[in-house]
Write a structure and sequence with these properties.
Layout lengths: L4 E7 L3 H12 L6 E7 L6 H11 L3 E5 L5 H11 L4 E4 L10 H10 L5 E3 L2 E6 L5 E7 L11 H9 L8 E4 H5 L1
Parallel strand pairs: 1-2, 1-4, 2-3
Antiparallel strand pairs: 4-8, 5-8, 6-7
Length: 174
């Protein structure tokens, strides 16, 4: 059955982080999604981790390809995506439990073609303990849209990350 949301996880040599990433994705409050693990030719055992997760959760599809870099890997994910809304989560990141729900809902409801969120960057020591973190805020107007004056600066100077947004798939294809 076709899912509403496609979560694309580009994977390249992130084996030590992948379990935490995928645990945060499969336990989302929003469940009507497929999870595409696009392995860009990893050499560190990431593929085995992906296969294990695909065997545990029927929403996960594992696709391995030759190493071409992040752009072509994401593009393959877009082509393979079956959902009407697309999100990206990098394999070395993890997300809050309502991440997909909060980003996908305005796109699925036709309120936006792109939804964006704030994010927090964390630094961990060798044991995985968080030693520093910093929160980054999105410039949002009261009506919930990116402020017009700030939008170009925001998109083109340092925070145009694919992974903190939900996109209407048709927009990405256009």
């Amino acid at each position: 059955m076709k899912k509403k949301v496609s979560v694309i996880v580009p994977v390249y040599n992130v084996g030590e982080y992948l379990d935490q990433c995928l645990e945060s994705v499969v336990t989302q409050t929003f469940t009507d999604m497929e999870i595409l693990l696009i392995d860009d030719g990893s050499t560190d055992g990431s593929g085995a981790v992906c296969k294990e997760w695909a065997g545990k959760d029927g929403r996960i599809r594992y696709i391995r390809k030759e190493n071409e870099g992040l752009g072509p890997t994401r593009q393959m994910g877009i082509r393979e995506a079956q959902g009407e809304c697309v999100l990206f989560i990098d394999g070395d990141d993890w997300v809050e439990r309502r991440y997909v729900e909060r980003l996908a809902t305005p796109v699925l409801n036709g309120e936006a073609e792109i939804a964006i969120c704030d994010y927090r960057k964390v630094w961990c020591d060798d044991s995985g303990r968080i030693v520093r973190e910093r929160e980054y805020k999105t410039p949002i107007a009261e009506e919930g849209a990116v402020c017009p004056r700030e939008s170009l600066d925001y998109l083109f100077y340092g925070r145009f990350f694919m992974w903190l947004k939900a996109y209407k798939k048709d927009l990405l294809l256009r």
